[in-house]
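Technical note accompanying the year-one report. For the benefit of new consortium partners, we illustrate the data format agreed upon in the data management plan: each record pairs a sequence with a structure-token string. No post-processing was applied to the example shown here.
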Amino acid sequence: MKIRASLAVLVFAGLSGSAIAQDPNLARNLAATCANCHGTNGHAVAEAKKLAGEPAESIIQTMAEFRSGDKPATIMHQIVKGYTEEQIELIANYFAAQE
């Protein structure tokens, strides 16, 4: 039983990095988590900031400011902590590519 558990941990650890590289829809799927506030594909319709077409560097910088607490937020400072730097880059590049 211990061997199976150890193998499962190794498989999961090995998949985490390679899954990001292999899933062609990962960026889109991660960006979809932003839709409640920022609209589908970053096209906000309410008071939230439009993300579609924004430069990736700008989105990455804003996320870093939320994470550090340098930028005030109602909820983004909590949400950003749930993403890795690589995931934030994927999300930012996805939104930057939207028209």
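Partners are asked to follow this layout when depositing records. The chain has six helices and no strands.
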